[in-house]
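Re: How this chain folds, sequence and tokenised backbone to follow
Notation: Tokens come from a learned vocabulary of local backbone shapes, not from coordinates.
Start of record: The labelled sequence and token lines come straight after this line.
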Amino acid sequence: MADLFGTSIAQGGPGRRPHRPLRIGEWVADPEVNALRRGARIVRIEPKAMDVLMLLAERVGCVVSREELFAAVWPHVVVGDEALTQAINKLRKALGDDSRSPSYIDTVSKRGYRLIASVERSDDGPVRGSAQEADAARKSAERTHDAAPRAGPAGRERRWSPAVLAGLALAAVFAGFALVHALPRVPAAQSIEAEDGRATGWVGVAVSPFESLGSDRDQAYFARGISDDLIIGLSRLSGLRVIRESGEASDAVRARYRISGSVQRDSGTLRVSVHLVDAPTGEELWSRRFERPVGDLFAVQDEMAGRLVELLPAKLSEVERERLAKRYTQSLEAYDDFLRGQALFLMRSPAQNDEARAFYRKAIELDPKFARAYAGVAMTYAMDYRLGEAPDRSPALDRATEFAESARSIDPDLPEVYWALGFVETQNRRYAEAIESLEKAINLDPSFADAYALLGGILTYEGQPEKSIAPLRTAMRLNPGGGYLYLLLLGRAYLFVGDADLALINLRAAAMRNPADVETRVYLAAALAASGDHQAAKWEGVEIRALAPGFSLPHWLDTYPMTSAPQRQRLSALLADTGL
């Protein structure tokens, strides 16, 4: 395709895309002005979407993997999968394409995308149009393609019902913060790489959330809890870095091994399947199906973890062996209540926060030495203050500190306890103490993605957003399915370092995963204003008012743990015209 394109985007990134217009099917695509033309109609598209289209056009008829697209269009930048998905959706909308019966862009399951329309050099000349036309088209396209619902000044579009919002928020839970042998040896391990590409000496093991099977589909929290506990146990082993996967992001993760499984709890019977796969070859190295009474859950977890430890290339010290064998609780009922509390807490709404605390307290009643349940209660009190449910800061955060310290006194070797302490100390704006707690959590569990994420969040709070990006990238590498919170934190950091484009990519993805989160929409409105789209920023303000009718930006900032005065002033200035 050299005669058609001249310079390859795949070789040099988006800065080297071709400058000549191309005829793609019925459209002429002009990368210089980021526009498509068919007859008299001109459609403006975002630069990143054009970059994607140009790479697909360069490889017309061939499957281009998601990894290739990320490397070419977002080089040296960590963004969520939604960035590419949104670019593809916007291209389909602009081209008038249908994903179910495509004429332009074909999705090849688990591989990537393929351009199936004809591509040739266009002799029609460049795509142009007045500045007014371009601006109107761009704003119209953004309003049409934005995944979140919008309200215009002259009327409202479809409003999301509380039930729909709750359902979407619950879906985000299972992708959000996670607080959570006598067989042949596996092939020789290969090390995962650090940010700079150097071998770390650690072996990457990716674990997917276990699938919930059976008729009782609301048991997803139970299956997720089992895989979370497996991750926590394996994370304590020397030489391993455990990566949390979501099914959608698995192909992008560098890992030597992959673990997946399924769980079914039905009529007193527990069925658990687990698979260990050699990631580069896809060869299944080991699999096992357990079918036991539900009361044998802990025995099944111990046997499953023990078998995997024997198979994986990890040297187990005596201390690590003791930690692996150590159960958080011996009460299955307490464990179930704790998992229910975890799912509710991550929804970050007042009602669900109260329900989560009730489940954590039930777990403590059943097992007064359940440290993780005490940590859960601590976080609900800290979240009471954060959500504006506690009129006075001190009592709520004092209770949070009390329960977090109780958790630490029960089990001082539990990484999740130090994460909870870091979370509470962050709300108290005691950043030095919070960072110290998070460093302890990371020392106990070097694969603790949430600890890296909160560390990155704190660095932004205290006015060092440029330093927060590295730990946030580490968090996203360890937990690619980390949900809207990781995307929110990364988008917030990019906003304060002055990169509105990357801020919008991440914040739009966060809003798509959890459209009910007010903090995400506050920063999305600010990023839209920073990009110059003040009308869309005002519409975000309307959405925030709909989600939180009594929202007041000054009051919100009073309870927000960001101490950097320049950043607070910057945020207030960006939102000045939104009516918040």
